[in-house]
Amino acid sequence: MAFADRLSFARKQKKIRQADLGKMVGTSGDIIGKYERGENTPSIDVAAKIADALGVTLDYLIKDGEYEQIDEETLKRLKEVQKLSPENKAHVFA
Predict the structure, then answer these.
(1) HSE-up (13 A, CA, CB side) for residue 73
(2) Residue 61 CB contacts under 8 Å (≥ 6 apart), including other chains
(3) Is 49 in contact with 57 (CB distance < 8 Å)?
(4) Tell me: the pLDDT tens digits for 20-29?
(5) Angle, alpha carbons 54-1-56 (nearest 5°)
């Protein structure tokens, strides 16, 4: 799946209009539409703002990966679990 497809999918999952996403990241809905059609590619700074606005990782938007569907909140919680003692991890996983 390409950046354009992942952007469109994530935006639709959050039920955000292109115009609203554009306002959230400091651009227009027309530009978001161009990103979704693959006509333009955002700078890394704009892509990071889009990821933040959609609650996904930048990694999800820009590349295929094993964990591409993990949102920011889930990723944060996984990192917290990673810091637990072995006994507490075993309890969480059970």
Answers:
(1) 3
(2) 3, 6, 7, 10, 47, 50, 51, 54
(3) no
(4) 999 999 999 9
(5) 20
